[in-house]
Amino acid sequence: MLFGGETAESYYEEGVTAVMKGDLEQAARHLTRALELDASMHGAHHQLGKCRMRQGRMREAVQHLETAVRNLPELAPPHVDLGFALLALENIDCAREQFSAALQLKSDDARAVLGLGYCAFERQQWDTAVGLARRALERGRIHFDAHFLLAQAADRAGMLEEAMPHFKKSLELMEQSIETNPEQPTGYYLRGSVYFLLQHFVNARQDFEAARERADHERHYAAYHHHFNYCDILAMLGRCLLKLGKSDDAARIGQEILALAPEHPAGRELARTHDATES
Fold it and tell me: Does this model's pTM top 0.85?
């Protein structure tokens, strides 16, 4: 029994604390128990949806977040989190609806603006994505995700003078993250992703190798609205090797991916590179 007793409120509080500490399995158990004790505790659905999203269990996340939105319609955060879960499932139109609904409730919600920016980016609406990423930054979203989105969108729109400072800021933010958490793979993976887009393939390779060394094969990683796992790290490493002319090494990476995830598209693509260079 928890210190606060066998009550929904105690389990909810312990669940939220576990989420903040990154103990997602423990958080899910506590939040599930809170709902068993009090099915009307809709905030627990919101927190459990966020927890499942960080675990990469997006369809479960959507179910919980839809329940939260339905029962807490006056709150913007459940709409925003549901939007990002739908975005991860590539349901762009429904995600846009949720971000727009959040802005109707809270017009200065920077995360909702950023979410609309991601929707525009996915629809290849580069100028719109640039404008929305700018607005997110102006409204206080001064984190990696907003800078990296603006950098990518501006790059695609041919606005290189605007893109480069935000690529640089993205690198600086991830360097700070690595300094703070040097044994976590997330900072290396995200910094490697920036280097890859800048075509700094040697640096990108080093970062993806560092992420590979630190990553748990079974874990889903989530940070700044980017989601990846061990196979995704390998896929980016393989792409770097291809860019560096190391097709045999890239093919071996592809085989390693397929041994873990036989249907992984990047694994198949990389595994074929050796045959392609031989023919």
Answer: yes
